[in-house]
Every structure is written in C-alpha cells, then in structure tokens.
Amino acid sequence: MDLTTKNIYKCLSTVIDPELNIDIVSMGLIYDVTIGKVQLESGERDKIHILMTLTTPGCPLIGVFDKMVRDSLSEIEGVDAQKDVEVELTFDPPWITDMMTEEARAEIGL
Question: According to the model, what pLDDT value does residue 108 have?
Fold first, then answer.
C-alpha cells in the first residue's frame, strides 16, 4: 500500500473504538491527516501527522488509541509507526456526536 492520505484514512478506518465498536474515522475522531518530509542525516523521510480527538478529555483509552493508530499505519509500505507517525491529540474543537457519520450515529441509536 502506497503512502497517500487516502490510504492513511483507509488504515485508520480499521481502528475500532473498543467501547462503541465503531471505527475512529466514522466517529469523527480524526480531524486532519498530513504527510510531510523530515530531513535526517541519512536523508529525507516521510512524516505522517495525525490530528485527532477523543470523545472526552478524560478518556481512559488514550494510550490504547495511540498504539492502535500507529499499528494501523504499519500496513503502509515503508512506514515505521514509531519513527514516522506523530499522533497529536486535541480537544479544540471538542468532539460532539454531530461529527459522526450518519451510519455511525444510527449504529448507536442517535
């Protein structure tokens, strides 16, 4: 799988919220995905930046989501999830159920 924004979202859609059993893309937890370059002594490397939120600031699954996001992106050829992926957590704007897809809202009865 090539490194494209579309493929990153495809990988992220395999990350399932363990409490709601819905993927984090459909839940609206992913605010932005960017691919940049980082200059290292050994040459240039791609850097993936994921800007995301959680349903609540006190969500006890914060460490779980970070690992799950990184693990999902390991499927992209040449991506080292520990070196090439930055997961930035934000609560601005705060997550609300309106950020979910219609299908996701229907799944949880909204």
Answer: 86
